[in-house]
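Any chance you could type out some protein's one-letter sequence along with its backbone structure tokens so I can compare the two?
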Amino acid sequence: MKKQTVIFALALLSLCSVHAFAADNAQRREGRHRQPPQEAYTVCEGKESGDQAEFTGRRGEAVTGICVQEKDGDRLFLRPDHPPEGPQKRQGGGEGPRD
């Protein structure tokens, strides 16, 4: 009887650990690309919120958008007109085409 209780407790502990790891991993995936690159901050230096700006992205593409205020800070960064696609979009998932 005691052996069964120990096995059950270990199985339950393992299940909880796997669930916690999966939930943490999902949160990391969802927020993985949400930090703007340094160029998005640099291009908005000396500008005001709502000003248009542009910089060259990592792949050589022109990234255009408007400068906006950080939610939890005092710096401006460029919010792109056409944000890059996330992992789900690239793999064919998601809700459909973007504007």
Observations:
- Helices lie at 2-31, 38-42, 87-90.
- Strands lie at 52-56, 62-69, 76-80.
- The chain is about 40% helix and 20% strand.
